[in-house]
Amino acid sequence: MKKPNIVVLGAGYGGMMTTVKLQKSLNASEANITLVNKNDYHYQTTWLHEVSAGTVHQDQARITIKDVINEHKVNFVQDTVVEIKPNENKVKLENGELDYDYLVIGLGFESATFGIPGLEENALMINDINSSRLIREHLEFNFAEYHKDQNPARLNIVVGGGGFTGIEFVGELANKVPELCKEYDIDKSQVRIINVEGAPTVLPGFDPELVEYAMNSLEARGVEFITGALLKESKPDAVVYEKDGKLNEIPTLTTVWAAGVKANTIVEKSGFETNRGKIQVRPDMRAPEFDNVFVIGDCALIMNEESGRPFPPTAQIAIQQSATVAHNLVSLVKGHGELEGFEFKSLGTLASLGHNDGMGVVFGDKKLFGWKATFMKKMSDNRYLMKLGGIGLLLKKGKFNFFY
Ligand SMILES: Cc1cc2nc3c(=O)[nH]c(=O)nc-3n(C[C@H](O)[C@H](O)[C@H](O)COP(=O)(O)OP(=O)(O)OC[C@H]3O[C@@H](n4cnc5c(N)ncnc54)[C@H](O)[C@@H]3O)c2cc1C
């Protein structure tokens, strides 16, 4: 009997963990497993705000794929997916084409700019290793260049969006800016870190006590918040926002847009039925129209029956989904066992606010503040590394600087 071809697209949290689980459960004689990814490394998106601010080097946030996969069982293809052809069971790559019997789509997210003029052209985004490194280099360049023209716009850093990513990023900036000022001979009082948020408060949806803690901690370190303010335009040298019906402009050469993500647009372009750009999966994580296509992570939409809204896209849910996807694929390949349904078990939400500070909720309703929150966040990162690559990977990439 012909061995089935399982093709996993994207080596993010969902795709990587599915591949590692499949290689543990299937023999080379049972299936051909192929993992496709743009780069030869997996990166931890949850650390990208640190790479962007320059508080962590990019190598700390990325893992060489071949260090984690078993090459006797998994064929790694470094290439870019251009299109999925679900009616033909084919995937078009920049440099070729792949046939599959089973497909896992784990292509992650893209920034959503909601048609705001100038954002695509002028703003920086925290999307992947390269875009994050660009932000770090851009910040340093402007601090260095300031001595040439004394343009204050070089020292105004505007972050669009006071959600999880925007707040984690300004927390890192609050720590990094004093270091940059020292390195580039700049008076700290000349630098502004400005967070612009459309909702009446930052971190909408978070417990008010946690929001207050975050704002106080960040304001004490110099972050300015402009809430209830809609970003209207990003220019090469300014941003325009509307507040209380009035337009205001902040001169800046650095706008970082952190206010929205959408699923990888390849999904929509490939003709899948979508809801908010994502594939609303069946309980067993398969696409509604295709019995051999699984969708995972930020490309998948699952409704939370309790709230009546989709579960937010997180690494946590992508990692949990990988267990269901891998289990169901193994059942299909081996031809025995039932397909199981996915159930999300929230392990909590923790946001970092810079070195040794954070806040969040764990174990249902236990609120954590300060170093306890960052400790728990680092522990959960470390647990992920352990699951992905065992003790070797944990020792190489783990976060052990618990009190920094
Ligand atoms: C700054 C930041 C902080 C965050 N913090 C948290 C947090 O603390 N906790 C949490 O749970 N979630 C957090 N998230 C959200 C979380 O990171 C995402 O939900 C998660 O990464 C989604 O995982 P995924 O497997 O769907 O895709 P991703 O992890 O995004 O991976 C997608 C992979 O697909 C590859 N790829 C994309 N397009 C192509 C293509 N065309 N061809 C080939 N390969 C391609 C990419 O290179 C990447 O390797 C954060 C996100 C950001 C941006």
Automatic annotation (TrEMBL):
InterPro entries referenced in this protein's UniProt entry, alphabetically: FAD/NAD-bd_sf, FAD/NAD-binding_dom, NADH-Q_oxidoreductase
Gene Ontology BP terms: aerobic electron transport chain
Domain FAD/NAD(P)-binding positions: 5-321
Co-factor requirement: FAD
This protein's UniProt keywords: FAD, Flavoprotein, Oxidoreductase
UniProt-recorded Gene Ontology molecular function terms: NAD(P)H dehydrogenase (quinone) activity
Family: Belongs to the NADH dehydrogenase family.
Protein name (record): NAD(P)/FAD-dependent oxidoreductase
Gene source species: Ornithinibacillus hominis
